[in-house]
Design a protein that fits this description.
Elements (H helix, E strand, L loop, with lengths): L3 E4 L4 H12 L5 E4 L4 H11 L6 E4 L2 E3 L4 H9 L2 H7 L7
Parallel strand pairs: 1-2
Antiparallel strand pairs: 1-3, 3-4
């Protein structure tokens, strides 16, 4: 399963998030909510809000985040960091 990243074109935090995943070699499913009403509905359904970037990975949801917030959430979910192959090898 690939992480789903909900974005809006032109969003600087969305560009930062896509760059983060690319730098770490994590394949993601990018869904632009401005281009698809279905994508916007799904994002609101899983996150309870309409701001981007929003990440969905199974039950792991991070809404309206910057990279520092994402990393804080990942620190609380080391199994996801491991799944994605990020972090140090000493965990």
């Amino acid at each position: 399963m690939k992480p789903i990243l909900y974005i809006k074109r032109g969003c600087p935090w969305c560009r930062e998030a896509t760059a983060f995943f690319s730098q770490h070699g994590i394949e993601i499913d990018i869904r632009d909510v401005n281009l698809s009403h279905q994508n916007m509905q799904r994002m609101v359904e899983v996150s309870g809000q309409s701001l981007t970037p929003t990440l969905e990975y199974d039950e792991f949801i991070v809404a309206d985040f910057d990279i520092n917030e994402l990393m804080d959430e990942l620190e609380q979910n080391p199994e996801i960091k491991r799944d994605w192959g990020i972090g140090d090898d000493e965990d």
